[in-house]
Specification:
Blueprint (H helix, E strand, L loop, with lengths): L8 H18 L3 E2 L13 E2 L5 H26 L6 H15 L9 E4 L9 E4 L10 E5 L6 H8 L3 E5 L16 E3 L2 E2 L13 E2 L1 H7 L7 E6 L2 E2 L3 E2 L1 H11 L5 E11 L5 H19 L2 E8 L2 H7 L6 H7 L6 E10 L7
Parallel strand pairs: 5-6, 5-10, 6-7, 8-9, 10-13
Antiparallel strand pairs: 1-2, 3-4, 11-12, 13-15, 14-15
């Protein structure tokens, strides 16, 4: 059980128990029950006097314990920095994987999108059953519902998620697409620092009463100011919870921020590669990768700008690489 992770309830419980034991030892608070507390509830403690010198000594000991907790927590989270050679090798391995197509789709449709192709996502009709029911989750809309609307007009039940746009939660579009003012994250948060409601994929699945249903298309295009995107968390969740068995198409925009010589950014090359290979291990095959350089081309007013330009800069410069990657689950079995 890995307790020392960011925002971990397990870690918080350890700290609370330590505080309660310390208060009990100090004497200002003594537990009435013999069972260990399970959270930060101090209501079961009662006042009890003790000697001031003993209190001071024990308070110091407790502070030392709490500092040790924090040191151990951070040490378990922080890996040693990667050298330039290790970072370059990890990036090159990730780069090669991204363009190594594993499944040749003979009948592919780009659904939705604007005139420049931005916002379009692929549907592989080699495996897509147009005459059967389908469930689509689309995370990250940014006011571009074109893909979602196309899938809705195909007869799919489509749910669009984006807490960052000013639309009414529960809005139903003409295409039948239902909008939810909710974002995706590694844990459920009622309101974050932006006032957004966030949920895990599994929680969304339960909330919409889809437990037992397959997701024929999962699309994720969400931005994270620190890591680049939430796609890491989604991949990790579907792999760790077994939800990968219930998803047929999985498309995402992968965000890789530079400079890669920043420790967190360089390590992310390894994280992404490991998640991709784990997906492949359970049957997910990459069938198309698109370089999203449309924004950069528009700003520079040229189509000559390519992903290779960013590849040469990303080790030392503050730039970002965007890949739109789509996978087919070759072991998918319909749920309905």
């Amino acid at each position: 059980m890995h307790c020392f992770v960011a925002n971990s309830d397990c870690y918080v419980t350890h700290v609370c128990i330590t505080l309660q034991v310390c208060l009990s030892l100090i004497g200002c608070c003594a537990p009435e029950a013999t069972t260990a507390p399970t959270g930060c509830d101090f209501s079961h403690f009662v006042s009890k006097p003790t000697m001031a010198s003993t209190k001071l000594l024990l308070v110091t000991m407790c502070l030392v314990l709490l500092i040790l907790f924090e040191v151990v927590r951070k040490s378990r989270r922080t890996a040693p920095p990667m050298s330039r050679e290790e970072t370059a090798e990890a990036f090159e391995r990730l780069w090669n994987y991204v363009y190594d197509i594993k499944y040749e789709c003979s009948n592919m449709e780009m659904a939705g999108g604007r005139r420049d192709g931005d916002g379009a996502y692929p549907v592989c009709h080699d495996v897509w059953k147009s005459d059967s029911k389908c469930l689509v989750y689309s995370f990250g809309v940014g006011r571009d519902f074109s893909f979602d609307d196309v899938m809705g007009r195909k007869g799919c039940e489509v749910h669009s998620f984006d807490p960052s746009i000013e639309l009414k939660d529960g809005l139903v579009r003409e295409s039948g697409v239902k909008y939810h003012k909710v974002g995706i994250a590694s844990r459920d948060i009622e309101s974050n620092e932006y006032g957004w409601k966030l949920m895990t994929l599994a929680s969304v699945h339960r909330y919409l009463n889809h437990v037992g249903d397959c997701i024929e298309y999962l699309k994720v295009d969400t931005d994270d100011p620190l890591t680049g995107g939430f796609e890491d968390q989604v991949m990790r969740e579907i792999l760790d919870t077994g939800m990968h068995e219930r998803i047929q198409h999985f498309s995402m925009e992968v965000h890789l921020p530079g400079p890669l010589m920043h420790p967190d950014h360089g390590r992310r090359c390894k994280v992404l590669y490991n998640l991709f290979t784990r997906l492949e291990g359970v049957g997910y095959k990459l069938f198309i990768t698109t370089d999203n350089v449309r924004g950069a081309q528009h700003r520079r007013k040229t189509t000559s700008f390519t992903q290779l330009t960013k590849k040469h800069d990303i080790m030392d410069k503050k730039t970002r690489i965007y890949w739109e990657m789509s996978f087919i689950n070759t072991k998918f079995k319909p749920c309905r």
